[in-house]
Specification:
heterodimer, A: about 290 residues, mainly alpha, MetI-like fold, globular, B: about 325 residues, 16 helices, about 70% helix
Chain lengths: ~290, ~325
């Protein structure tokens, strides 16, 4: 009886392990395929494959020599740094007062923040707002609208509420004001939630293309994902042709190699930090009710 | 309300409002920049929806443009492309929910049965990797993977099947959108179910083991029913989002040949309203979407408060 049960369990284990391996393979293979294509010298007769078709580094050479790609990379890094650091400051400043039950009009103010999660004016009024504020073609059009998000405010507020009141009270007796308490006591105790919200903001900024596509008009000011979209998604022959024009006949490679190389260039920073940061994302969604 | 930072003998509620404002003025000051940002970037666009009821003239601004009444809403309901985009939104969002939910539940259940801790962690970390990639990157990758000379068609050929134009054929394109969306997000959705599974009382499994219950039965008769409340609540919350069929995905993957099966409300507003500069018409359609979405989420929240209790509700 015992042996029978064990054998059945191990059959289950084998099937289960195979399923998990299939999940891993189907998740990773598209990325792997993209990587091998970016080194491929030829595009013909590809099909299902595990290694590059011929080998060339010319697509990467072309991208690294391209001024616009570097500028776009720099702009993405800048908006991510600016958006994340300022975003954390303003989110904390909004969340901390809301975590205090003694705050006057607390429930009105909470609802004021909550409602922005439930209803929005939509694309065109937002577009006209940025236009009227004269923010078009500036990095502030990408940073300011994303500084304070209702969801992040609630995550942070819920965490702040879990900090023992006694610590803050003793600081207050020592003559510390609210700003001092937030900066010296609450923020140092809130590293986990700061990491989670900060990472979400950083990923959001790194990945966003839509606002830049709408609000940024000059190539010098645009972001990486917009250039990536132009090369790998829109695949307008003019962009690729202009980039390829300077390559000698002998060094030519298929446009797919350039497209996939551009994808890899945009992917690498994310993949490099992913193993170290992924656990903070998981912590972030376990906050329960938003309004609490 | 408990006495926390109030005076020694007064609870906050007993103090006059003026006193409380004075006492907490630096807290209110702290709140000011956030409220200002939300007012400018969320509430001003909400006021901007009056555009839907006006004939917008850009030189006159929103306030100065003449009123148009319900003209643009009437136009919308006679516009076949708009009607089609509403249908597509429901079909795509609905299919993503109906397929994505069971897939992520099944994945969580199976993952939970993996005995090797490191393999389990590895599989889970890899499963939600695509969730953090932008749709621009993923669309670029899928253009290569699903191309006529790409690996998926290569496999089809090996199996003796005909090659498929996945991204240009309206018979397959919705399937592509649903599959790639589920591929991107099932691992992340499973995190929620894994957390629920971690909270199950281990004594139940202990008792079942003594009764000679096998692991597959454990999964079906103990684990699944135990996380059923979480599944229901999550399902209701996802259903509330049925008006959003994922702009980023559709916009980066579709093309004119598949507009008919994939144009959703958001992409239609973008193309006709913004790129086509029909600002008032686009705002009207956008407002229709926002209002329906607000009704859906309010309804979902009320439902959860009834069946799942206040602590599970959004507010």
């Amino acid at each position: 009886m015992v042996r029978k049960r064990r054998r059945r369990a191990s059959a289950f284990d084998i099937v289960n392990t195979v399923i998990m391996l299939l999940v891993i393979v189907t998740t990773l293979y598209p990325f792997w395929y993209c990587l091998i294509m970016s080194f491929s010298r030829w595009d013909t007769g590809t099909g299902f494959r595990l290694w590059p078709n011929g080998f060339t580094l010319n697509a990467y050479k072309l991208l690294f020599e391209d001024r616009i790609v570097w500028r776009a990379y720099g702009n993405t890094v800048l908006r991510t740094l600016l958006g994340t650091s300022l975003g954390l400051v303003f989110t904390a400043l909004t969340a901390y007062p809301l975590s205090k039950l003694t705050l006057p009009f607390n429930s009105f103010l909470t609802n004021f923040v909550l409602f922005t999660m439930l209803f929005s004016g939509g694309l065109i009024p937002s577009y006209l707002l940025i236009y009227n504020l004269r923010l078009m073609d500036t990095i502030w059009a990408l940073v300011l609208p994303n500084l304070v998000g209702a969801y992040n405010v609630f995550i942070m507020r819920n965490f702040f509420r879990s900090i023992p009141q006694s610590l803050e009270e003793s600081a207050m007796l020592d003559g510390c004001g609210w700003f001092g308490i937030l900066w010296r006591i609450v923020v140092p105790l809130s590293k986990p939630v700061m990491a989670t919200v900060g990472l979400w903001l950083a990923v959001m900024h790194w990945n966003s293309y839509y606002d830049a596509m709408l609000y940024i008009r000059t190539d010098e000011k645009t972001v990486l994902q917009v250039i990536l979209r132009r090369i790998a998604v829109e695949r307008t022959s003019t962009t690729t042709a202009a980039m390829m024009a300077n390559i000698s006949q002998g060094a030519r490679f298929p446009s797919r190699t350039l497209e996939t190389a551009m994808i890899v260039v945009a992917l690498v920073p994310m993949l490099a930090v992913y193993p170290f940061i992924q656990k903070y994302f998981v912590k972030g969604i376990m906050v329960g009710s938003v309004k609490g | 309300m408990t006495k926390k930072t109030g005076g020694p003998s007064h609870s906050p509620r007993e103090q006059s409002l003026g006193h409380r404002v004075a006492k907490n003025r630096s807290l209110l000051l702290m709140l000011l920049p956030g409220l200002l940002l939300l007012t400018v970037f969320c509430y001003v666009p909400m006021y901007g929806v009056v555009l839907a009821f006006k004939d917008f003239v850009i030189t006159k601004g929103i306030g100065g443009s003449p009123w148009a009444g319900l003209k643009y809403f009437k136009e919308a309901f006679r516009d076949e492309l708009f009607i089609q985009s509403v249908k597509n939104t429901f079909i795509l969002a609905g299919a993503k929910i109906l397929i994505g939910t069971p897939v992520s539940i099944a994945f969580a259940l199976l993952l939970n049965e993996i005995k090797n801790f490191r393999f389990k962690k590895l599989a889970q970390s890899i499963s939600y990797l695509p969730y953090f990639m932008s749709w621009v990157i993923l669309a670029g990758i899928f253009f290569s993977v699903l191309a006529l000379n790409g690996p998926v068609n290569g496999l089809l050929e090996l199996l003796g099947l005909k090659k498929i134009m996945f991204l240009g054929d309206s018979h397959y394109f919705r399937g592509v959108l649903v599959t790639t969306d589920v591929w991107k997000s099932f691992g992340w959705s499973a995190v929620l179910y894994m957390a629920a599974i971690a909270g199950i009382d281990q004594e139940m499994y202990e008792a079942a083991r003594l009764d000679g219950v096998n692991r597959f039965q454990n999964m079906i008769y103990i684990t699944l029913p135990s996380i059923l409340p979480v599944i229901c609540i999550n399902f209701i919350l996802t259903l509330a989002n049925i008006m959003s069929a994922n702009f980023d995905q559709v916009y980066n993957m579709y093309s004119p040949t598949v507009y008919k099966v994939s144009d959703i409300i958001d992409t239609y507003v973008y193309r006709i309203g913004l790129r086509g500069m029909k600002y008032s018409y686009g705002t009207a359609i956008g407002l229709f979407k926002s209002v329906v979405a607000l009704i859906m989420v309010t309804f979902a929240n009320t439902l959860i408060r009834r069946v799942g209790g206040k602590e599970n509700a959004l507010w």
